[in-house]
Amino acid sequence: MKKTLYIKNMVCNRCIKVVREELEKLDYTIEKIELGEVVITSTKKKIQFDKIKKSLEENGFELIDSRNANIIERVKILIIKLIHHNSTENQSDINLHDEIINEAGLSYQYVSSLFSSMEGITIEKFIIHQKIEKVKELVVYDELTLSEIAYRLGYSSVQHLSNQFKKVTGLSPSYFKKLKSKKRKFLDRIL
């Protein structure tokens, strides 16, 4: 028996590893695994969703069973991939609205309204928080200038980046850098 599972909070390669290990412990074969989605097969007659759910919840994940929750999780994973795992040098070349429409297969207005009602935050604010977390990472690594970071993340200027950073964190990027702070958040905890 083959089944596709949609999993909330699966946002990085470490998450993929944990989910794979947990499902294999339960004797499921992994056919395909990527952020937010796993295709499993089982020689058993019935897939034991209660055991899968319990195992995933013990590791901070959640099985998604509603269509709307699945749409929102796919959108969140898309945004995380584009901001945190994208090798493109300049994210201003990426139109997030179009990418979201393509991923969801629905109008942006519908997805935006659904996202806000289910997550308690707008898509735009979610994107800003993800970008600020990426800025923190790049500032801590100290390999790029603020100008290069602003360009890479699609900000119109260093000032625009700095204003958003300060609005979200209460600190300027340069002050954050001086602190050598590692006050970074797990990607699934950013809201």
Description:
The protein has about 190 residues and is α+β, with helices and mostly antiparallel strands. The chain folds into two domains: about 1-65, 2-Layer Sandwich (Alpha-Beta Plaits), CATH 3.30.70.100; about 70-190, Orthogonal Bundle (Arc Repressor Mutant, subunit A). About 55% of the residues lie in helices and about 10% in strands. It has helices spanning about 15-25, 50-60, 65-85, 95-105, 110-120, 125-140, 145-150, 160-170, 175-180, and strands spanning about 1-10, 30-35, 35-40, 60-65. It starts with a strand and ends in a 12-residue tail after the last helix. The model has no long low-confidence stretch (mean pLDDT about 90).
